[in-house]
Amino acid sequence: MTAPIGYFVHHQGRGHAERCAALVNAMSRPVTIFCARDDIFPPLRSGVRVLRIPSLFEPTGAEIYGLDHIPTPQTLHCAPLGWPGIRTAMGAIAGWFAEAAPALIVTDVSVEIAQLARICSIPHVAVLQHGDRSDPGHRAAYEGAAGILAPFHQALAQPDWNWMRGRMFFAPGLGCPGEVPAPSHGGGVLVISGGGGDGFSAAPLGVGARAFPDMRWTTLGHVKRDWHATEPSNLTHLGWVDNVADHIAGADLIVASTGNTTCHQVLAAGKPWIAVPEWRYFDEQVFKARALHAAGAAWHSPALPSSAHAWRQTVEAARRTHDPDRQRSLAGTDGAARAAEWLETLAIRLSPPMQPDNIIPIPATS
Question: What is the reported pLDDT for 110?
């Protein structure tokens, strides 16, 4: 009987669920997905089930808050005491470990569940994200991992990852559509806010649109409205749309944060790109924007420009350094198939015969 695989999915933003679906749909093994939401996944093949667990960081009102004076160990990130939802979630995963005896579990992302798997004697594969991951919690998760899955091109690797490169597998394009619309021009400036945070503020976008009155400015995603923003008529907010890739293909310039899905879509379209990181834990998007800049794939702006002349300088720099061939070379098209093959090979290697010849069983005692 083929051992199943487990998969923990963090339910913030779009990227975690999309790359999980792409990866498990490219495999044939049974898969159990653990997630606090079951409505964020694209269609899943037969043999894949989503088991809803309580959120590990959203309170329900049943928590005991008098225990917060006890420090959190440096090897953990989110482990408050007195939260029954966390106990229920961890108990469900540990119970499944004991019942299903999986070949491994993929953690995307949680250092606590990575360490739970190790404690329960189950190999885990850690999904790697950019950022300052030098803390003891991340180090413990990566040191104990059977493999480390990087859903991006190796040219975007951080220098401080060299110590674990031997266990890393790069899968650019994982969780992103393989086909992108044909690029065109005339769409003006397209601003994309990611789905995992609060989005960009309207005021600096209004400044940018006024600095380029002959260009149409369009925003996708959530934009925080500012009472003092004097937004011009060439700035339009569309909110969330289903055809983001079509808008990217028709744009002349992209201003976007650096989430996984957005990165792939912009790279595949080969558009001039001002990469503006949004706030994320461990400065994930800051480090991703730096990596894109260093690889020649985007112009990194630490924040949205705050004046008209700063906007003009930033736009000029993005256009001057634009290299569409370099961008497309980093996008990747077969990330799911390659990652599935790697994960299957790893699962086989981690599932030796139940009792190898060189193991002498301990005799039962009466």
Answer: 97
